[in-house]
Amino acid sequence: MPAPREADEAEIRRQIGKVVEGLRDRDLEGLGRLYATDVVSFDVEPPLQHVGVAAKVRNWANVFVFFESVTYEVRDLVVAVGGDVAFGHAFARLSGTLKNGTAVSGMWVRVTYGLRKIDGAWLIAHDQVSVPLDIVSGRGVTDLEP
Length: 146
What we know:
CATH architecture: Roll
Largest sheet: 7 strands, mixed
Structural class: alpha+beta
CATH topology: Nuclear Transport Factor 2, Chain: A
Number of domains: 1
Distance between the termini: 34 Å
Radius of gyration: 16 Å
Strand content: over 45%
Number of helices: 3
Shape: globular
Order of helices and strands: HHEEHEEEEEEE
Helix content: 25-40%
């Protein structure tokens, strides 16, 4: 039987995997169940923050406005678990086929997850997605790969 922290880490990895599956399956309801009701998300698109699960789900719904099919990859996920809180970081890439039929490979971003164990379930309470910034131009650098 795995140690409690190992079991928690495995559950957190499954939860992050469900984000990947939810986007692939276009399952907004399922995606919403992965987040704490008061989630705060700092994503790459405006506004500066998306507060609450409804705002986070709307943010994911925007993906389907542009994409006919979606592939979401998470790689190099590192998780640290402590009691009822955990955090993780990884690289992620959203790619797929746009509604006009154009295939896009997307860009790699950095993602950080903050999770809380609520009523026995690990839920994403915070996420932050970013790209490196080129200081001189003031533009995000979107062509880097892990």
